Amino acid sequence: MKRIKYVYFYFLFLLYLIVGFFGDVPLIKKGIYENLYNYMGLMLIPTLFFFVLYGFVFMLENKKKRFFWELRLYYIYILFFIIAYIFILANLGINFGTAPGFEIDADFIRNLINKSLFEYKIGYLPTYILYEFINLSLRFKQIPFHYFYYGLYGLAFFLFLLMVFGPLIRSINRAKEKRKSERKRAGMNSGLMEQFEIQEKLEKGEKLSTVKSERKTSSPQKKNKKAKIENEAKVKEKIDKKGIVFRRTVTIEDEQE
User: Fold this and answer.
1) What single DSSP character describes residue 256?
2) pLDDT in the model for residue 175
3) Over the range 144-169, which residues count as b (16 or more CB within 10 Å of their CB) and which as e?
4) SS3 for 67?
5) Taking the alpha carbons of 41, 45, 46, 47 in that order, is the dihedral positive or negative?
6) What stretch of H or E contains 1?
7) Is residue 112 a contact partner of residue 134, using CB atoms and an 8 Å limit?
8) Helix/strand/coil for 193
9) Mind listing the pLDDT tens digit for each residue in 98-116?
10) Which residue in 4, 106, 146, 213 has the fewest CB atoms around it within 10 Å?
């Protein structure tokens, strides 16, 4: 409950900021929004969506689910930046074909900053990150520029794999655990049915040795879905009828004559 209360304050604060953008509100100056737009530009839109969705993720009580969706939010947010960078570089004439022979010079850096800030308006901070990324190839001259360029695609593909195949692997593991629990439950039901049959025959006056020999010579039941369902129904019916619950395995020793 405390977590949900904190989320309410979180959403109220976000709503207060959004309302302050369109009108005058106490404690917030208009210059704050101008600075935010200057630093983040159009990337302020995915940033806002990130914080809104993060509030909903924060409401999840299950820690594993919350961590799972937190990671997906970060992956998507980073992908927005990578896609924007690839788009800007493509408009500067850099693609898979031209990247290996491309050389960075002062004109390219100038065009990069102009397009990022004034044409596509991604803001100072994303532009600075892109600028530093391009400068990596200048600092490490032994590594060609196209390696860094292909690294953008590699990072985007890696994040996509984490987003898509992560849940897929998780669902496969859940299916395996479900099948394992079903096999375990089927074995327990089979043991209960055997105990019920032994108990019923003993109540009729049959000897334990005769009952055991019948169990050994009887043909095994087919392990299909229909048989499992019928077996579970019989076990449930007998437990309800007798009003007992087996918590431990009952061991019946042979009668000594």
Assistant:
1) P
2) 78
3) bbbebbeebeeebeebeeeeeeeeee
4) helix
5) positive
6) none
7) yes
8) helix
9) 888 888 888 888 899 999 9
10) 106
Query: In terms of Cα–Cα distance, which of 55, 48, 84, 83 is closest to 69?
Result: 55
d(CA 133, CA 253): 77
Which residues lie below 8 Å from residue 44, measured CB to CB, with a gap of 6+?
Answer: 36, 37, 123
Is 109 inside any structural domain? yes
> What range does the domain containing 114 cover?
2-143
φ, ψ dihedrals at 24, nearest 5°: -85, 125
C-alpha span between 86 and 79 (Å, rounded): 10
151 domain residue, yes or no: no
The residues, any chain, with a CB within 8 Å of residue 71's CB and separated by 6 or more, are 162
Ranges of the chain whose pLDDT falls below 70? 1-5, 21-23, 25, 27, 30, 189-194, 196-257
| Tokens found for residue 93 | 């004439």
Angle between helices 30-40 and 2-22 (to 10 degrees): 100
Evaluate whether 92 touches 112 at the Cβ level (below 8 Å): yes
Map tokens 């369902």 to a residue. Answer: 229
pLDDT at residue 78, as a whole number: 93
Which of 71, 40, 79 is closest to 54 using CA atoms?
71
Structure tokens at 192: 């209960």
Model's pTM, two decimal places? Answer: 0.63
The number of domains in the chain is 1
Note whether residue 123 is domain-resident.
yes
The DSSP call for residue 115 is: I
